[in-house]
């Protein structure tokens, strides 16, 4: 072992990066965790910030506060621009460099528009807290603009919400949006009936929640329809612009289109100089290191990993945490001169919430729907949320929301006028 | 009375505008409340959002939710550009117009840089929730940048915070900043000692909290110094740029300068076409109407009103609420063919908080300092906060903060890189 301890640099403070950092607490290493923000984000509840149910600080905690007692870990707020694999150095956008002995790349994924980058302006995606506040502003402003609008067709377009993508995020957004329209905003407007809002969930594939068994997908679809969501499957979106969305042969005028369809790996992967998979992720060795660069590990959504049966490891929080811990174990093994363990994904199941008292749960042979699934989802999310204070605050918000049908964070932040697409800014 | 009820248009959903709207609930009028945002803001606690103690939604509530049961009130989210007093029409920035029979102008004040508009980029002020999130980002990022910085002088500048203006907002910001540096962030950094941060409070006049009796000002100053704030009075700030502030003969390198010094009336006042006072406010008649335009009232920070002894009515929440109710009473009297009552300001006293267990209270002959004043301040602010859920959430945050020394909302939102002044963006 060298005189100065081995330096592990971890890029990204999400589930993979943070769990890797924590699992190195007792290892004979110095750890530097780099993240462009100052916080760890509990992404499974991000849609609740987007739909005004929770405040941004409820689902995030400062990384350096989480790691305050881990003396071998230093947290730096830096945006990483590239990896210089030859010099073993991480290059930051401000020109600084950080040298590493081991690198853990866990910079995650961002939303992808499948070659339609012009859709990004019209259909925001949901990956960061800033994305969530942007979507919240768009949703709340749409009802405000409908109230101020005199032309019936224009008003109708403000009251039409199209969500592209029928995965868990799309289902959660759609279910919550109808609840906001039918319950939260009821009786608060004088000129419009917010309950008449149209919420569409557009999925290109044959069914929603494709990662669940077919029976649960069918159940989720029925639940969404019962709540008032129009579900369309089997038709890809053809076009998105400031005024609406084209799907199949139909053009749907909608001033609010939300993107929950695709993700792509962080562009940092490209700077590694190794072949990537179709989604831009890094194919890794059984111990999650990179072929030809054993000192570099990739964890979380950025890693392309298969299960023994050939199915990919899904991009969910439990998988990212497991990969983070695996990478730490591999580094510890290498330092001890032992062979690194192989990564084995333990599938703890799959949860998705649909709306009030409606969720689907798939845990091995256990399949739950309805109220029981919803309580299960609720308890699991409170349990896994980091920070005692956040748990209390989220429980308070949820209890209050349940009884009042109100949302705790119905506040428009940022410049709402700036969101209006240029073509329509002048009335 | 006309067949269609008389239309009262109220511009601004702050304390004056909201209290005017509510006081017209039983009047034979239609009320339209216009605000550029969707929420009423509890401004007295805005500094707590700026210093990461509370979330933005904790101190704000949607205007249309507050007014949901007032059937004669319509809320519209519109930005007002000008008043056409001849046509009796409010002109919005989107080209729409709203005709009025009575107009209540309550668009408040914004921060003013006394002719130094270039200071605005370097020394943000605190009036809106977006301002508060911007200041929160600046404060939290400064400690992050100090930790990443290797040059001792540059690090020192990141750890120096200068607050310009020794009124209640400046005192609250300074007192909270030292608490954050000494307690909240203690033991969370590896390279810097956040407790070594320097917090300066710069006041051009002879004493801090000039609206309080001299003995309480002196007490507040002593308290601030005991907490660790460097208080400088009697020296106006000469210059502010990206790297620091000049005060008296000194240049103080400081990467974070906050502006709590001056306010100016909303520029809407200028479109009324009447003479304004030096701060841009509208001198009003005894019933708060505008001379020569009896159908226009001005309330809140936008109105220039003197007390019988010649002292101005202060720009505080209780005064704004009283003016709002006065304007509603005047409109009701006019509609009933009676003379409008004269406005009389009832001074309920003056509170300012300094830090943990330290505040000053001045209520007539009653003067409190220390822990008792602090409990009084705390109780009053919880009591006046709108919304049961907000009260609970704020109490939870405060109780937790008191025991843990932690701040509930230590989350950087928005693009921190964009805040860095251009001259220094490249290291």
TrEMBL record, chains A, B:
<dbReference type="Pfam" id="PF07992">
    <property type="entry name" value="Pyr_redox_2"/>
</dbReference>
<feature type="transmembrane region" description="Helical">
    <location>
        <begin position="366"/>
        <end position="386"/>
    </location>
</feature>
<keyword id="KW-0472">Membrane</keyword>
<protein>
    <submittedName>
        <fullName>NAD(P)/FAD-dependent oxidoreductase</fullName>
    </submittedName>
</protein>
<comment type="similarity">
    <text>Belongs to the NADH dehydrogenase family.</text>
</comment>
<dbReference type="GO" id="GO:0019646">
    <property type="term" value="P:aerobic electron transport chain"/>
</dbReference>
<dbReference type="InterPro" id="IPR036188">
    <property type="entry name" value="FAD/NAD-bd_sf"/>
</dbReference>
<feature type="domain" description="FAD/NAD(P)-binding">
    <location>
        <begin position="7"/>
        <end position="324"/>
    </location>
</feature>
<dbReference type="InterPro" id="IPR051169">
    <property type="entry name" value="NADH-Q_oxidoreductase"/>
</dbReference>
<dbReference type="GO" id="GO:0003955">
    <property type="term" value="F:NAD(P)H dehydrogenase (quinone) activity"/>
</dbReference>
<keyword id="KW-0812">Transmembrane</keyword>
<keyword id="KW-0560">Oxidoreductase</keyword>
<keyword id="KW-0285">Flavoprotein</keyword>
<keyword id="KW-1133">Transmembrane helix</keyword>
<dbReference type="InterPro" id="IPR023753">
    <property type="entry name" value="FAD/NAD-binding_dom"/>
</dbReference>
<keyword id="KW-0274">FAD</keyword>
